[in-house]
């Protein structure tokens, strides 16, 4: 770590490394989506049990995230990113091999912790790299995460659909992640956020911060549900083969990637309130279309609409959290992000319980209602000054 007041100014190499690490995080996380039906069948889980198992993934991430912030401050971004990315690359083949619910639960918890650690560490690096560049780069960084989602879910689905053996595919994914990590290594920062003030890691939100956090919770719930349940939805509701079921998340990731890469322009042109209104309405319509679809093509179109709608909602809420005056901006954004991430933690498990009691289709319909709520309430929260 450089002494306080001295900086290693980051440049092109660090910018490229940051993009590669976002790609690693997105690719590694999305590679799990096409594997869900295989894992469910292998361990003999029903929908309710699968919901509990998926809770372990989110729980692992949720526990690892605050610890990662402390580790990056002490050991630097490079050490944390290398360790967590290597673990992520190792866990992909493990997820494809475990054959008992207990082993899958442990594997998902470690996998979730790896994803959460990479995500936090690279965002810390991204903040410093963006500041050194003197220009807005965050949307582009996060666009690489979404691009990784396309490559991960789409690549695994296409490989399995073409008849490639599952062990070979997952080891190939681990190899790709390792190569990307090697390419990024020298551009990863050897220090953490040296400008971070000594403030509490988290405070319980109140007022408009609580509202923004709950809206982020619902938005992240939609993302988490598509990651963990969309493939199974195509298999169980539309008879799609397991090898091709990952196309559901791929269609979502493609439109989300496009939306994020164009996000700065879209928000500047429409304003945050309209982005939330139109985005919430579009995602609600997408979930409704998936619910009503009588074939898998229409369901894929629905998931694509959800990706387009959700792409820029959460960034608008983060901006609003930074503008409000109820809490200091840093604490407000942390609280909103933590509440939002709880949606990824609890959302897939909730959908699993609903699918067990009623049906997976009803869970999709419920998500449409939640997104409609975001469309109605979100614009009021986004206009905070």
Task: Briefly summarize what is shown.
With 385 residues, the chain is mostly helical. The chain contains 15 helices and no strands.
Topology:
Elements: H1 12-30, H2 36-43, H3 47-75, H4 77-95, H5 101-133, H6 138-161, H7 166-184, H8 208-238, H9 247-261, H10 263-270, H11 272-292, H12 296-310, H13 313-323, H14 329-357, H15 360-382
Helix pairs in contact: 1-4, 1-5, 1-6, 1-7, 3-4, 3-5, 3-14, 4-5, 4-7, 6-7, 6-9, 8-9, 8-12, 8-13, 8-14, 8-15, 9-12, 10-11, 11-12, 11-15, 13-14, 14-15
What would your notes on this structure say?
- This protein is mainly α and 385 residues long.
- It is 79% helix and 0% strand.
- It is globular and about 50 Å long.
In what range is the share of β-strand residues? under 5%
Give the name of the CATH architecture of the largest domain: Up-down Bundle
- Provide the domain count: 2
Number of DSSP helical runs? 15
Give descriptors for this structure:
385 residues, disordered N terminus, globular, Growth Hormone, Chain: A, mainly alpha, 2 domains
């Amino acid at each position: 770590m450089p002494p306080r007041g001295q900086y290693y100014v980051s440049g092109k190499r660090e910018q490229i490394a940051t993009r590669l690490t976002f790609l690693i995080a997105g690719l590694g996380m999305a590679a799990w989506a096409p594997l869900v039906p295989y894992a469910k069948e292998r361990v003999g889980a029903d929908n309710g049990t699968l919901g509990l198992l998926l809770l372990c993934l989110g729980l692992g991430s949720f526990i690892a995230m605050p610890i990662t912030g402390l580790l990056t401050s002490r050991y630097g971004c490079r050490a944390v990113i290398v360790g967590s990315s290597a673990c992520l690359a190792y866990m992909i083949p493990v997820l494809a091999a475990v054959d008992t619910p207990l082993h899958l639960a442990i594997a998902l918890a470690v996998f979730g912790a790896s994803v959460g650690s990479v995500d936090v560490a690279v965002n810390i690096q991204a903040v410093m790299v963006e500041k050194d560049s003197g220009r807005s780069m965050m949307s582009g960084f996060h666009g690489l995460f979404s691009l990784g989602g396309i490559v991960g879910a789409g690549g695994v689905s296409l490989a399995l659909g073409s008849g490639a053996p599952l062990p070979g595919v997952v080891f190939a994914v681990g190899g790709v992640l390792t190569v990307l990590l090697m390419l990024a290594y020298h551009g990863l920062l050897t220090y953490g956020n040296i400008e971070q003030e000594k403030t509490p890691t988290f405070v319980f939100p109140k007022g408009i911060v609580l509202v923004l956090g709950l809206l982020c919770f619902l938005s992240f719930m939609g993302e988490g549900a598509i990651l963990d349940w969309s493939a199974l939805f195509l298999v169980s509701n539309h008879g799609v083969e397991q090898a091709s079921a990952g196309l559901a998340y791929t269609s979502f990731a493609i439109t989300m990637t496009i939306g994020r890469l164009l996000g700065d322009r879209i928000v500047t042109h429409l304003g945050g309130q309209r982005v939330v209104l139109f985005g919430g309405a579009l995602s609600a319509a997408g979930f409704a279309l998936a619910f009503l679809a009588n074939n898998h093509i229409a369901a894929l179109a629905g998931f694509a609409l959800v990706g387009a709608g959700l792409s820029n909602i959460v960034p608008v809420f983060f901006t609003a959290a930074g503008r409000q005056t109820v809490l200091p901006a840093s604490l407000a954004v942390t609280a909103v992000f933590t509440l939002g991430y709880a949606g990824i933690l609890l959302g897939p498990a909730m959908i699993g319980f609903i699918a067990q009691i009623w049906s997976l289709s009803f869970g999709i319909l419920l998500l449409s209602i939640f997104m409609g709520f975001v469309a109605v309430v979100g614009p009021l929260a986004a206009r905070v000054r």
